[in-house]
Structure formats: C-alpha cells, structure tokens
C-alpha cells in the first residue's frame, strides 16, 4: 500500500510539471507569434500610410494643392531627411563624345522603421526594405510611354523626426523648376538649348539610394533600356538610346555619318533631302566655285547589305554659275546589294536629269553652285537594270557583283507599303521616293547614313561642308529602349511631423 501511494504521488507531480512546462511553452510561442502578427500589422499599416503620403505629396508637389496632411499611425520611428539619395540625368555623346549632366540633385525621403524593416517614401515612390532586400510598394514618378520620358523629380526639402502616433503635414517649397526642355539652359560644347526632340547619343537616369535595388527592378519592368546596378555605390542606372536626328542635320565631313537610330520598320522615311554647296576649291564657299565633274553620294554599309545613291555632274559644267545656268544633264544612280542572297547588285539610273529645275538640280547661291536633291520626291523616276555614274563611288559595286548578273527580275517584298509587293524587270521604272523608302527599310532600326563626294579626274570641285546640310525625317519605333522626348521638372516639398 505504501509503495502504491508513493507511485501515485510521483505521477501526480510529473503530470503537474509537464502541464506547467507545456503551458509555458505555449505562452512563449504564443507571445512570439502575437508579436510577429503585431509587427506585420504595424508594417502593413505603415505601407498604407506611406502610400497615402505618396499620393498627397504628388498633389502638393505637382501644384494641385497647397497643404495636405496624413496620419502616419502609431508605433515605430519616423524620420524626414532632405539629403538621403540623389537623382542624376546625363546626356552622353550628344556631340563628338561630349557628355552633359542635365540634372543632379538630392531626393530626400520620409521613412518608417520598426523591427528591422523600413518603409520609405522617396522620389514619388514607396519602398520596403528588410533583410531580403528592397521591394517596391508603389511606383515612383517616372513615366515612360512610347519614346517619351516624363520625370517630375519630387524632392523632400526638410528634416524632422518623431515616434508613436504621428501626423505628417506636406507643403510646397518654392515654385516648380523646369529642367528639360528649357531654352535658357544650353549644352556646353554646342551652346544649343535644352530642347526636344532629344538628339544623338544616350540619355541615362541614375538613382543613388538605400532602396536602389527597388529602383533597378522598376527600371527593368518599366523600360527595355539598359539597366545596371552598382552595389558598392548603391546606384541603379537606366540608359535610353535617343532616336537620333529626326529633322535637319549638318553635312558631315567626307565619309562621316548621320546616325539613324530608332527608325520604324517598313517604309518609314517621310522626308529626305539635301543641299550641298560647292566652294571655290578652298572650302570657304566665298563665291566663284566650280561644280566641274563633281559627284556626291549618300551610302549605307552595314553587315551584308549596302546601298548608295550618287549624283554626278558633267565635266563641262565648271562655270555653271558664272556664265548663267544652262540646261545640262545630271546623272543619278541608286545601288543596293545583299550578299546574304544569291542576287547580284540592284542598279537604277537616270542619265537625263535637267540641271535647272526639279527634285534633282544644280542651283546657284551667291555665285556658288548648290547641288539640291530630294530623295523622297515622287517626281523623279529611275530605270532598273543599269548605271550611268562612272566616277569612283564610295562603294565598289563592280566587286560586289562577283560575276553574278544583276537580278532580272527582282521583287520588293514589303507587302502593303507604297503599293508593293512589286516585281521589276530590266527597263521598268520606279520613283526615287519609293526606292529610298524601300532600301532604307532593309537596314533595321539603327545604321549610319554616310556621305561621300569628290571631283573626277579633271575636276576642281570642293564641298563647303560648313554651308551644306539636309533634312531627314522618319517614323520612330515605339520601344522602351529609345527616347525622343524628355520632360523633367523639379518639384520641392517640405514634410513636418507632429
């Protein structure tokens, strides 16, 4: 009896011990889980509050309201910083390898911190940072549509701190500042104003921030530009190619180029013309110039494909402007070859073009001859199957033949563009406009349109590059890696915490 009583007592003690221990474990785990839930609830509430702050800061910063308030919530620490992070915009290679910093300024931020997690407003976006990295809660003020970037830079220009139950008051600080376009600011090397369309080179946006990983992810999803990250410097950069020269261009030096970038597929060239002034042999264009035996051409040589359009003047035209213009015969050839096919060279020609009128002519300005060519004119015809320009053009078309005869017939296979699909036999005619639009369409979205010129054996002609130029317009592609129009403003606000 005594042993059974002792066993019963020991069992009761063990049961009570296990019960107490289990209850302690449940309480401990329950307390931890409850704390986790409370932390997550506080963070979720902070994200919602920061998103509200984002929206109301945009109202004030973009000039749609003067004062806005947001209740941020309870718990955690809040901080307003004016110098946290910066944003820089560079226009690289806008001319001859020169780079211009168009904008560079701090962004500032409003942040909430609790239990190792930060939720922050910066640059018009809300970011969440924790041990696993940074994620975007709401997007920044960075709007890329088509080839247009609209970037109102929302800057926080105050400092403050608070904890617990906090309310933020947002006020506009200073007037909106127009950054780009802005005719009062100019590029250093060219003195040209900041204006659209953006020409040449690349435009890049770089953000230095604690939340740079989130900025980089946003750049990747919003554009197809080249996005890079520098972890050491905590920066994210997106580089957008410009759509190059769409409009007037200066005439390049011999074998120099006019960059064509972001040109749309198909027959997208809408206007291509040039005016080439011939000087007196010293390149100064001071009158009395001779056009004797001159030829000029534009050509493209990219990968397996090559194109050239050349205009030649006759030998006896040397004193054309001194003696008064006479109706002389000009010659125009268009060539094309694709070595990835079995076809030979396409040759188009017209050797009976009047020099005194029409889309291809020789005008006179202040005593100097000026070669004028409208490559997109529908009033100038060429005949398929031969050539008449016998000068040494930029591309050696005879060597490209490689013994193959010119294709007869050949087919332009751009269905629906300018009335194609069309097959041509020797002797068939087509306009210079359609030939230009068709052959340009063979070179993809980027290529260099080069110039070439020279006098023949008996010629003394010299191109006056400084007083020559042209116009090239084309439809551009709707692609997130290109930029044509840039709209940047600086919008300053202050944030006070109570």
Topology (elements, then pairings):
Layout: H1 2-61, E1 67-73, E2 77-81, E3 86-95, E4 98-106, E5 109-114, E6 117-122, E7 125-130, E8 133-138, E9 143-145, E10 148-156, E11 160-163, E12 166-172, E13 177-180, E14 182-186, E15 193-194, E16 202-208, H2 212-222, E17 226-230, E18 235-242, E19 247-250, E20 257-261, E21 269-279, E22 294-302, E23 305-312, E24 329-338, E25 346-354, E26 360-365, E27 368-374, E28 381-384, H3 397-401, E29 410-412, E30 422-424, E31 429-431, H4 432-440, E32 446-455, E33 462-463, E34 469-474, E35 482-483, E36 485-497
Protein name: DUF7308 domain-containing protein
Domain DUF7308: 259-475
Organism: Halobellus rarus
């Amino acid at each position: 009896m005594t042993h059974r009583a002792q066993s019963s007592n020991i069992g009761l003690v063990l049961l009570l011990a296990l019960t107490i221990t289990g209850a302690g474990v449940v309480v401990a785990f329950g307390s931890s889980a409850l704390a986790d839930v409370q932390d997550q609830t506080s963070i979720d509430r902070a994200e919602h509050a920061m998103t509200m702050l984002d929206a109301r800061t945009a109202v004030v910063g973009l000039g749609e309201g003067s004062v806005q308030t947001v209740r941020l919530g309870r718990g955690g620490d809040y901080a307003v910083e004016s110098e946290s992070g910066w944003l820089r915009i560079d226009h690289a290679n806008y001319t001859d390898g020169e780079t211009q910093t168009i904008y560079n300024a701090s962004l500032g931020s409003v942040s909430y911190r609790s239990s190792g997690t930060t939720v922050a407003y910066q640059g018009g976006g809300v970011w969440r940072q924790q041990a696993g990295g940074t994620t975007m809660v709401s997007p920044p003020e960075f709007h890329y549509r088509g080839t247009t970037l609209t970037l109102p830079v929302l800057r926080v220009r105050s400092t403050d701190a608070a904890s617990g139950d906090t309310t933020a008051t947002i006020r506009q600080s200073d007037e909106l500042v127009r950054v780009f376009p802005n005719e009062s600011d100019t590029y250093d090397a060219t003195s040209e104003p900041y204006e659209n369309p953006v020409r040449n080179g690349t435009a890049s946006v770089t953000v230095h921030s604690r939340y740079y990983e989130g900025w980089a992810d946003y750049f990747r999803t919003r554009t197809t530009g080249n996005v890079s990250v520098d972890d050491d410097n905590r920066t994210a950069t997106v580089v957008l190619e410009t759509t190059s020269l769409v409009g007037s261009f200066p005439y390049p030096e011999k074998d120099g180029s006019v960059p064509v970038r972001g040109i749309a597929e198909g027959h997208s060239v809408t206007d291509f013309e040039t005016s080439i002034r011939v000087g007196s042999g010293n390149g100064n264009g001071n009158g009395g110039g001779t056009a004797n035996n001159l030829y000029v051409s534009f050509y493209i040589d990219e990968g397996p494909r090559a194109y050239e359009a050349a205009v030649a003047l006759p030998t006896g035209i040397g004193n054309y402007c001194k003696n008064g213009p006479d109706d002389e015969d000009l010659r125009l050839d268009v060539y094309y070859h694709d070595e990835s096919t079995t076809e030979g060279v396409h040759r188009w020609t017209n050797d009976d073009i009047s020099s005194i009128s029409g889309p291809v002519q020789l005008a006179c300005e202040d005593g100097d001859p000026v070669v004028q060519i409208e490559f997109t004119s529908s009033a100038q015809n060429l005949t398929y199957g031969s050539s008449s320009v016998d000068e040494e053009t930029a591309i050696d078309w005879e060597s490209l033949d490689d013994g193959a005869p010119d294709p007869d017939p050949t087919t332009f296979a751009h269905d629906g563009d300018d009335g194609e699909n069309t097959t041509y036999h020797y002797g068939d005619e087509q306009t210079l406009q359609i030939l230009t639009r068709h052959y340009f369409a063979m070179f993809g979205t980027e290529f260099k349109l080069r110039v070439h010129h020279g006098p023949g054996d008996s010629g003394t002609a010299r191109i006056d590059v400084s007083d020559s130029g042209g116009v090239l317009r084309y439809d551009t592609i709707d692609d997130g890696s290109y930029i044509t129009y840039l709209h940047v403003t600086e919008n300053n606000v202050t944030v006070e915490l109570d």
